[in-house]
Write a structure and sequence with these properties.
Oligomer: single chain
Shape: globular
Structural class: alpha/beta
Number of helices: 4
Largest sheet: 5 strands, parallel
Strand order of the largest sheet: 6-5-2-1-7
Length: 124
């Protein structure tokens, strides 16, 4: 099966609106029965902390908080995979993230998944 990976690298809590498009793309692809993963790298991890008040900011033009987009993605079957280094640097555990965050992975696993011939990678 073809896999779609959306790497969130440049998105951050300082500009949460930049995460809306990749989350919508992931949700749409999952609704189309594609195998979809979001790889959360660097400061993008902060967007997935369940108690982060920045995730509750209402984002224009959707007038929904970022947390709603994350929850929609998880509900439609998007697998959220978080960089182990980014978690360690922030002294976070997977339990600090939104319920349904799939797993913690390292760079070797990310590279292995991203270079699979049946995978398309989009980086944000």
């Amino acid at each position: 099966m073809k896999r779609l990976i959306l790497q969130l690298w440049r998105t951050s809590p300082e500009q949460p609106n930049l995460a809306v498009t990749p989350l919508l793309m992931a949700t749409t692809a999952a609704a189309m029965n594609m195998d979809v993963e979001i790889h959360v790298i660097g400061s993008s991890v902060d967007l997935f902390i369940k108690d982060n008040p920045k995730n509750q900011q209402i984002l224009a033009p959707s007038m929904r908080p970022l947390s709603a987009f994350v929850e929609d993605a998880i509900r439609t079957g998007v697998k959220i995979k978080v960089c182990s280094t980014a978690l360690r640097e922030r002294q976070l555990q997977i339990t600090d993230l939104f319920e349904g965050t799939a797993e913690v992975i390292g760079m070797v696993t990310m590279i292995d998944l991203a270079t699979d011939p049946n995978t398309t990678v989009l980086t944000y």
